[in-house]
């Protein structure tokens, strides 16, 4: 059953849309402070669809993400008391507590690691504000960590380019169903 092929084709068409960079910038900004979907889901197909602009997309994603991170910092610094009850009720509370512990131990490096890794960066931006981390090191760590991640994604997608796009299109249904199977097996193991 070919469910994933049409979704893949639609995603590639959207990634070539003239306003796609605006959407990428908005998503990157929002993800760094409050939105749960990482910008990589837009960045990767946009770089595949237009490899010559991949580095521009990575720069746009990095700058918008860091700007959103500063908003997260401001939220943590000025408004944490207002969001704390909500945050306690979400799945992010444990990550927030871990982020605070990391700040106590590593400071600058906590933001760098969160910026590069799949750890929820937004939790660390808010924790950075709560911890009153100095803003200049916060921004520097965010630029380096987020930039390394997004330029790596963009570089790999640009390197693969049209060849990778064609291969993915050919195997996307198999990959999609394999991913579903892994998620189901993981959920079953987790529930046991």
From TrEMBL:
Classification via Pfam families: VTT_dom
Protein keywords: Membrane, Transmembrane, Transmembrane helix
Residues covered by the VTT domain: 54-157
Alphabetical list of InterPro entries matching this protein: DedA_domain (IPR051311), VTT_dom (IPR032816)
Listed transmembrane segments: 56-80, 101-121, 133-159, 171-190
Protein name: YqaA family protein
Taxonomic lineage: Bacteria, Pseudomonadati, Pseudomonadota, Betaproteobacteria, Rhodocyclales
